[in-house]
Amino acid sequence: MRSYQPDLTPPWKKSAPAPEVPAEPDLVVEEAVTGFCGAVIRCEKTAEGPTVTLEDRFGKHRVFPMAPSGFLLEGRVVTLARPSAGGPVRPARTASGSVAVPGARARVARAGRIYVEGRHDAELVERVWGDDLRIEGVVVEYLEGIDDLPAIVREFSPGPDARLGVLVDHLVPGSKESRIAAQVTDGNVLVVGHPYIDVWEAVKPSSVGIGGWPVVPRGQDWKTGVCRSLGWPENTGAAWQRILSSIRSYRDLEPELLGRVEELIDFVTLPD
């Protein structure tokens, strides 16, 4: 029989236990060992003990044991606990996946800007990143195309304290867009893009309730062709509102767009 061994560690040397935090849906935490950061999707009981499933901003899921002191919340070590039934659910992040800042005021607009090609692009960026952009003081403007991008950049007069980020549709090797983007060489300008013909395609088909984005033959107006193929009324404005209303958060967007917008926000908000 093992004898009882008293804990002789002085009280002032004992570490305080990490605070328990209910693992409410949408709470954003970082797993302490792997560094994986994501939002809580669900908690489950397993034979090995309770687990929590996290989803990162690119839609990747990982399951972790709810070990004591196993997570970081805004830099603090915490222990996740199963939320009480019927407890309040308080979103802890913005639609882009950033930690929400309740009551934060919009920052005075920076001199730097983010340009996107069209109104639909601007509305999508606002829907997902609007809260973040207001806190950072970043204004998004749309250009109605990038054919005159080099002249637009010269007129903007970018500098270290006024960086310019540009989001381009269909930025793939050999495209017209890639040739135009290559003409912009100013170090205070960052031109990035996604591979989709239009920003509509950057919305996950499952979020819109379709099996996939149709292939539209060359020579046809792409948006009209999409409406026709899907059996929607050939009203592209109404179709876009249908698509836009299906976007609730970054989870509804393809990673190829998510990464590029985050890159632009980081670029224009770098310290002077």
- Please give the radius of gyration in angstroms: 23 Å
Cα separation of the termini: 68 Å
The description of the largest β-sheet is: 7 strands, mixed
Tell me how many strands there are.
Answer: 11
Q: What pattern of helices and strands is seen along the backbone?
A: EEEEEEEEHEHEHEHHHH
Question: What helical percentage do the residues reach?
Answer: 25-40%
Quote the beta fraction: 15-25%
- The coarse silhouette is globular
User: Stretches where pLDDT falls below 50 for ≥5 residues?
Assistant: none
Strand order of the largest sheet: 1-7-6-2-3-4-5
Number of helices in the DSSP assignment: 7
State the secondary-structure class. alpha/beta
Query: If you average the pLDDT, what whole number results?
Result: 86
Description:
This protein has 272 residues and is α/β, with parallel strands linked by helices. The longest helix is centred in the middle third of the chain and has 18 residues. Helix content is 25%, strand content 21%. The N and C termini lie far apart (68 Å). The protein is built from 7 helices and 11 strands. The model has no long low-confidence stretch (mean pLDDT 86). The protein is globular. Strand 4 and strand 5 form a beta hairpin. It has a 7-stranded mixed β-sheet, with no helix packed on it. Strands 9-8-10-11 form a 4-stranded parallel β-sheet, covered by helices on one side.
